[in-house]
Protein: DUF2199 domain-containing protein
Organism: Leisingera caerulea
Amino acid sequence: MLTSPRQCRCCGATFAQLLSLSCDRPDICSEDMEVEDNSAVLATRGDILTEDFCRLGDLRFVRAVLAIPLSGSRGEEFLLGTWASLSRDDFDAYLDLFEMRESERLGDRPAWLANAIPPDMPMPAGCVLEMRPEGQYPELKVTEQNHPLYPLQKDGAALEELLELLYAYGHDLPSLVFDA
């Protein structure tokens, strides 16, 4: 499953490596809000959704990744493309460094996971947003020990746990394992 191409039965997508999920917007953001180019965040006042930034009233969000190590693998990770809510000051500082691809100068920042993961999770998770070098998306580390993602991120996820998470999002990936 990690090395050969396979096709998902539920959506028809072909995957050449382990599937990663990506949220296209923070959960609080309306589905009918149009995604604009990143440059619009500097040129537009008010609410806006771009490829990497979201501004809704006083709330600020940036695109991030949440990595879940796979137990028993050789360092393989399952990546969740998520959104992080952060303070206005941290958002502005990140935005200033984003274009120069120097966001790592910002250091770690407190943040909240802005997507319900798993999908039935009612409350957002407190996190640390770790800035990474050379324009890479920052990485979210869940800090709330009672959140279901905390042990998965800390100890790694068994393949069965990962498949359950993917199934909760509508992907019937167990069939990929057994149809190989």
Q: What stands out?
A: Helices lie at 40-43, 88-98, 149-155, 159-168, 174-178. The first helix runs from residue 40 to 43.
